[in-house]
Amino acid sequence: MDKETRMEWLVKRVAQEFKMGDVVNLGIGIPTKVANALPEGIKIILQSENGYLGVGPAPEVGKEDSDTVNAGGQYATILPGGCSFDSATSFAIIRGGHVDATVLGALQVDEEGNLASWMIPGKIVPGMGGAMDLVVGARRVIIAMEHCAKNDGLKVLKKCTLPLTAAKQVNLIVTDMGVMEVTPNGLMLKEIAPGLTFEEVQACTEAILIEPDKVAV
Amino acid sequence: MDKETRMEWLVKRVAQEFKMGDVVNLGIGIPTKVANALPEGIKIILQSENGYLGVGPAPEVGKEDSDTVNAGGQYATILPGGCSFDSATSFAIIRGGHVDATVLGALQVDEEGNLASWMIPGKIVPGMGGAMDLVVGARRVIIAMEHCAKNDGLKVLKKCTLPLTAAKQVNLIVTDMGVMEVTPNGLMLKEIAPGLTFEEVQACTEAILIEPDKVAV
Amino acid sequence: MTKVIGLEKAISKIENGMTIMVGGFIGCGAPSQLLEEVCRQEVKELTLIANDTGILGDAMSQLIVQHCVSKLIATHIGTNKETGRQMSTGELEVKLVPQGTLVEQIRSAGAGLGGILTPTGIGTIVEEGKQKLVLNGAEYLLELPVRANVALLNAYKADKVGNLVYRRAARNFNPVMAMAADLVIAQVDNIVEIGEIDPDDVMTPGIFVDYIVHKQSQEVTDLG
Amino acid sequence: MTKVIGLEKAISKIENGMTIMVGGFIGCGAPSQLLEEVCRQEVKELTLIANDTGILGDAMSQLIVQHCVSKLIATHIGTNKETGRQMSTGELEVKLVPQGTLVEQIRSAGAGLGGILTPTGIGTIVEEGKQKLVLNGAEYLLELPVRANVALLNAYKADKVGNLVYRRAARNFNPVMAMAADLVIAQVDNIVEIGEIDPDDVMTPGIFVDYIVHKQSQEVTDLG
Questions:
Q1: What is the pTM of this model?
Q2: Which residue range(s) make up the domain with B199?
């Protein structure tokens, strides 16, 4: 399976994590693609932290509304039943546990569920935006990212080395190589991307992965 | 001057404390009457803590709106330019210093500017409602009350004996006998109701009153 | 996926001993029919969080008269003498809270905050048992979040996904309580189709609302 | 007693060295003409509080490009590379704050609170220098109020007493900032007569707003 196919698998796999009516906030990049990969019959309500619920698809050309953009600054739409609000309400929704799940990218994630996603000291310091609140407030935190960095550097670690976005808040990590759940004992590799073996995934992972069938019940 | 005339004097005197455009919250009872006694040309904006700005006069009979009542539960109106909001916003307005003045009644008030207005232990415990926030948050706290209790008991004291509504927040006390300003040195009797003498006011007051012309400059 | 539900079924979700929050300010914006049904179903041992307990005779007051409530958190009880009577006899446990503090405590719970610092109550008996912090020379009380199992709200209009619109002073505590309970039931005057409320006009997002009960236009039985 | 004022006069009230808050989220809902006028009047040494510094080329970004700002409090600066450049050279002091924390800090100032407790930032460098409280076993950071001398806002509609209505995602920080500055100036697309906005539709009460500037429909000079 080539990289592109595995990325498609990743997106589809994340999309299976939701149930009907879930309120979900999708981060910029790979997470955004999840909205178009939902299983037949499942509808979720997308929250945009800049201030509305019911994010719809991008508008038709010529129908852009400069007041209706998503948290990434791109033109968006609001679906029927959606609503707008100020930033205080938006983060009350996020921090208050009213978002069922958030899907975010990551620079690093580790076996304790720590997440680093907002800065590389001395290099890139874009700021945390709403990510720190999302990771603390959403009921479920799902990381969707490529398993390895562009330079083949490891991203699924024993311990994050970059400044954290939040401590021990990640629940699930979905990469182009597999699906890992954060458990009290470490990362359990629940699923392996088609065509890969456990050993191949482990070889690209600093954290020790747990095989589901080897867990004591 | 009879009691009724002196009470009218009190209400008019309080009404002189405002400048054009002031945001004012009036308590139930005597304070409410201030709205109808404003000097010619002065308009103030009344805030009602149950959730709107621009309180207007009582509606005509037959035009009552059950959703438009004041904080005392009576039918009211909203003037053009008024607006409604929730209780969190209402008390953000009050606590946040956005109310220029509040006029409230009192059970007791003392020379330090302490106020007791919300309970008589073992007798009446109606609750503080919004009074504690109003007294702490309004830029100016004006007490409007009869100088003595119904049983001729003293209400302007050296030290309040009833549970406080707030400590050291009162700025001005207007009664049917005079106008007292709370100063770092105690209560200064700035004005005496027509027909009364300093001694007559002092005789009905536990706190030692300061005569303005006797203050060292 | 409509959230519209019958009155009896909605209130049957409230169990004895639960904590309920009820919107309204001396009756204005209180969900009268939901409250009457709580009385009719004889739910007991409730902890009630509300601005007040209504005016003797109205639906809110009946929660107290009918002894549905064993503990009350409110800001003002002067308009319902039965509340004062039950408090003095010890039948009802009453905790009085400044109004601006109560609404921030409820907001804190809904917004996932650990609490807020307020100057309100400093130097009064409201201080008792609370942590005090001094910041830049000013004293503040730490007030903790307040949440409930169920919130009973009143709104003027709802669409079928639960977006709510309130009218005038009937808004009061309703939108804040909508965020701070596990189960949120709103009594509404009007129900419209999805899409009929402009996104900017929504005052409570539908994601907070679990059930909508259409207010009956007919006169309801007097429970007094 | 209208609050409508000219652009130049409105911005002349901002002095060098002041702290200003500016509404908007990556340009959406930012008061572009007010910002362009700040640049034109060459106001300097400002402390800027805003969600972000816009996208390079837009009005917000020009505040940074033109060196009007010496200190920045924001949540995200990734869309304006000049901000990052000035930060790395030390020309600009930057403090990054989680978005939900920043908006609550501003709200605290506007609402007269001494601060709020948030779980956001626990276990991260955001903790540094802050008081931590443990309540019921959970850790929270005490975040203090943030206010400004001047708030520059953008709204869709205003009446002449300053009641504001926002549209869609252009609301964002604007209503919260309206409560937390000594002087509040709003740029608005439409000005209507008093009474033309229904009380329930007002999103920012006019008492918060000092001046309204009518957005010019003509193209403004490109300051880039």
A1: 0.97
A2: 3-203
